[in-house]
């Protein structure tokens, strides 16, 4: 298969490096959530592979729900406007929440989500992000469980897309000529 016709992709992280990061996050969560039953909220679509891998390492009971947020058009820059395309249906008040994101870039999306979840009075709220592109941060956000620091490049694979393509790639890749061409 040629999953990226016409695009030059440069591998940043192998499947082994990603698996090690996921296992490390899970072991930190296994230490922190003993005897609890948190609600894991995945931010679609980018989280779907990471979340699926992560929850299979957890040895405490979890519920899983999803929210679909969008702040990007078809390009690589955040528009600054976040909208919820679908919402969390599970009741949140009094629950321990773990938000699972693929990547935190400007922080705008996560800040919007955390503010809206806090208004629903969870008993705790933590953030897990596989990737942290901290050099691009515009809004400060705390990441409680972080996988890998990444440079200011546009990344695809392991759930992350460029115009809805490349999510299925194993490993994490940089698109050399950007996302729009
Ligand atoms: P933020 O609001 O700028 O932090 O953007 C967060 C969202 O933008 C992430 O959850 C991703 O869905 C998307 N995003 C940010 N950087 C990348 C990237 O390098 N590749 C693919 N998606 C990205
Ligand atoms: Mg995301």
List the helices and strands and how they pair.
Layout: E1 9-13, H1 15-32, E2 39-44, H2 48-55, E3 63-72, E4 78-86, E5 96-104, H3 108-118, E6 124-132, E7 145-149, E8 155-156, E9 172-175
Parallel strand pairs: 2-3, 2-5, 5-6, 6-7
Antiparallel strand pairs: 1-9, 3-4, 8-9
Helix pairs in contact: 1-2
Key attributes of the depicted protein:
181 residues, alpha/beta, 6-stranded mixed beta sheet, 3-stranded antiparallel beta sheet, 3 helices, 20% helix, binds inosinic acid, binds magnesium ion
Q: Counting H and I runs of at least 4 residues, what is the number of helices? A: 3
Give the rounded overall mean pLDDT.
92
Order of helices and strands: EHEHEEEHEEEE
Q: Beta-strand percentage?
A: 25-35%
Helix and strand content put the structural class at: alpha/beta
Total count of strands: 9
Q: In terms of per-residue confidence, which ranges show pLDDT below 50 for 5 or more consecutive residues?
A: none
Distance between the termini: 21 Å
Helical amount: 10-25%
What integer value in Å does the Rg equal?
16 Å
- Report strand order across the widest sheet: 4-3-2-5-6-7
What binds here, in terms of ligands, is: inosinic acid, magnesium ion
Estimate the global geometry from the Cα principal axes: globular
Strand count, sense and closure of the main sheet?
6 strands, mixed
Brief write-up:
By secondary structure, the protein is an alpha/beta fold. Helix content is 20%, strand content 33%. Helix 1 packs across helix 2.
